[in-house]
Structure formats: C-alpha cells, structure tokens
Design brief:
CATH architecture of the largest domain: 2-Layer Sandwich
CATH class of the largest domain: Alpha Beta
Number of domains: 2
Distance between the termini: 13 Å
Number of helices: 11
Bound molecules: alpha-D-galactopyranose
Order of helices and strands: HEEEEEHEHHHEEEHHHHHEEHEE
Largest sheet: 6 strands, mixed
Strand content: 15-25%
Structural class: alpha+beta
Length: 382
C-alpha cells in the first residue's frame, strides 16, 4: 500500500511525498473510562491510515481520499467545519497552526488505509494523529506526540461533535510493538505492558454495524457521568471525576442518585478497578483470569452502560462457549463495530470459521475477522 500511494502521489502532484503510517487501536480493558479520568489499556495495531503528503506553493490544502473516492480543498486558515472526513483535516490544520504559527504554505495529500471505517478501530483518530504528525514534520512545528493527541481530541470535540476521550489518539501516537499501554488518563502517565503470549491471538470480529460517535448516545453517556459526579460532589466535595469514587462510596448514595445515572457510574467505577486488576493478572500471565474480566466488562457495557447492541451481544454470547476462547467483549464506543476476543492460537482457525457461520445464520451478514498484531505508533516511512 505504501508504494501504491507513493506512486499515486507522484502521478497526481508531480513531486515526492513524505509517507506517514498511522495505526488504529485495540483496547483490552478500560472502556468509557478515558473521559472519566480513569485508566485504559490499548495498543496500536497493524491496520493503518497512510498519508502521502508534501508542501505546495499555494495557501490551500488539497486532499484526496481513496476510501471515499473524493477530493477536497480548503484554505489553510479555514476555521469552519464541513462534513464527514473533511472535518478531521480542517480541525487538525486549524489547531496545529493555533498552537504554533500560521503555515507558510498549503499541502497536497492522498489518504489511504486498511482500517475499516466505522468498525471501532479508530480510523478517525488514526487520520488525525497521522495528519497532525505530518504537518508537524513538514513545518517543523515542534509539537510533542501528546500535543498531537490533544489536537486530535480537540478536533473531534469542536469540528466533529463527538466529545471523545484521549485513548484512541494516544494509542495511535504512542503505540509500541508487542506492548499494551496502561494509560492514566488523568496524569497522562503511561506504562508499556508486554503482551507476550505467543500461543494466544487477539481476534476482532466486525459486526459490520457501523457506529457513528457524533450525535450519538456517546455524548449522552458523558453527560450522565458528569451528572453523577455533580451529585456525588454534594457528599464528597473533593471529587473531580468518577476516578475519585470507590464502589463503597457510590453504593452508599445509591438512593440519592437517579437510577440510570447510578448504573452508568457503577459501570465506570467498576471498570477502573477491573483494569487495575487486569494489569496485575497479565503480569502473572493469568489469561483465563484476564478473560473473565473481559466478559464482565461486556456485561457492564451491555446492562449498565447500555452501549452494546444485539449483534455485539450475540458475538460475545457465542464466543463464550467456543473452545480456546479466554475472553470476549465489545470494544470501543459501542452501538456496533467489533468484538475483541482472546483466543488460543490452536483454536483460532476454528473460532473464525464458527463465529462467521453462526453470525451469518443469525443476521444474514458475513462479519469480517481480523487477527491483530500489536505494533508501533505513528511514524514516517522512507
Ligand atoms: C471511543 C472514543 C474513546 C473512548 C472509547 C470508549 O473510541 O474515541 O475516547 O471513550 O470510545 O472507551
């Protein structure tokens, strides 16, 4: 794909591009915890957005997307959102300049990739991270990877309308081959945890139900968590986020908090705790124990946080009874996208065949299945 996009760029723009590869992510545990200042456990994957990019002699960004078979140009000082994928480019262009200095010129770029759009592997975060990284290189803007992650997040908030946390952008920029990242979304401290289980595979099964984060229930969940914090502050004034609450404290005020808000908070508080226990289990190489936590996360996301859907629930219910499966759950924002499954190497082929045929039988659609590798974060390819 790298050579294809390089060639395409040369033909279209008659010059040499810089090539950037920006990965999507998986997340093993810690879902909907990032915007609650909690912990997450993602890793960058071997599915990526590729950008071929170079400066031009105009004041315009000229972009071509292979995925959407569509071109788009906009002046570099645009601050107005447009539609769809274009907003990621407009937002990142805007914030990189706002944080540094106005660019001396525009850029030409071609975007390609193999991250399924809407599949819950963070293709949008990969695009923002890769494009921000490219601008940083081309204009020697001097931004750190953390600043680039924050720019991606700001773009989602203000140009796309999804009030996402920082996990996806961080994973894409900070990924390390063979390692998960235990990220504290409050302090931004992070630790690489080797995921060294050669006899196990991380398998994603795509429901093919596309999720759409902006304008969806995602923002509602975030508001509900904030409402929970507001209520809990009446009893515990020092509480800043759900990160600061123990399950005991929450239970004590069960009757003071509206039922639905209580359920949302309970899930988040327990999920943070699960993540910390999960990391300890990984260190002890206890995959069955870790897998049990994944199932519990799914139950919480299904019944308490209510971000699952029938297709995701079906896949997890099926996986639970298949040989060699240690754990399974929905992954990412929810309402579609993928399940993440931890499966022994020897059972992986049978798992893939069986889960596909059962899903097809139940929903009449063939799911896509991906055997993931944990890879490095955003980088330039020469
Ligand atoms: C989406 C968001 C992330 C995170 C997950 C849920 O992927 O972009 O910030 O909140 O959902 O864990």
């Amino acid at each position: 794909m790298v050579e294809k996009i390089r060639e395409q760029f040369r033909e279209r723009f008659r010059k040499e591009p810089l090539i950037i590869a920006a990965p999507g992510r998986v997340n093993l545990l810690g879902e909907h915890t990032d915007y609650n200042q909690g912990f997450v456990l993602p890793g960058a994957i071997d599915k990526r957005i590729y950008l071929a990019i170079a400066r031009n002699d105009s004041r315009t960004v000229n972009a071509w997307s292979n995925e959407f078979d569509e071109s788009f140009s906009f002046p570099i000082d645009t601050a107005q959102p447009d539609k769809g994928w274009k907003n990621y480019l407009i937002g990142v262009t805007y914030y990189v300049q706002q944080r540094t200095a106005p660019f001396a010129s525009g850029v030409d770029l071609i975007i390609d990739g193999d991250i399924p759009v809407g599949g819950g592997m963070s293709s949008s975060a990969a695009l923002c991270s890769g494009y921000g990284f490219a601008l940083n290189e081309l204009f020697s803007a001097g931004l750190t990877r953390l600043e680039l992650a924050q720019i991606g997040q700001l773009t989602e908030h203000h140009f796309v309308g999804a009030r996402v946390g920082i996990m996806d952008q961080f994973a894409s920029l900070y990924g390390k081959a063979g390692c998960l990242i235990r990220l504290d979304c409050r302090s931004m401290d992070h630790e690489y945890i080797p995921f060294d289980f050669p006899d196990h595979r991380i398998i994603l099964v795509n429901t093919m139900v596309k999720h759409e984060l902006s304008g969806s229930e995602y923002n509602v969940r975030r508001q509900q968590c904030e409402a929970g914090v507001g209520k809990l502050q009446e009893y515990y004034p020092s509480v800043v986020s759900l990160r600061d609450i123990s399950i005991g404290q929450l239970e004590k005020h069960m009757m003071d908090i509206p039922e639905i808000i209580y359920q949302r908070c309970k899930y988040v508080v327990e999920e943070n705790d699960r993540l910390l226990r999960g990391c300890a289990l990984l260190e002890q190489s206890d995959l069955p124990g870790f897998g049990r936590l994944m199932y519990r996360t799914h139950e919480g996301l299904r019944h308490e946080y209510e971000v699952s859907c029938a297709e995701l629930d079906f896949l997890v219910d099926q996986a639970k009874h298949m040989p060699g499966v240690k754990g399974a759950r929905m992954m990412g924002g929810g309402f579609g996208g993928c399940t993440i499954n931890l499966v022994s190497q020897e059972a992986a082929a049978q798992f893939t065949t069986d889960i596909c045929s059962r899903y097809e039988e139940a929903f009449g659609i063939s799911p896509q299945v991906y055997l993931m590798q944990i890879e490095d974060g955003v980088k330039a390819i020469y």
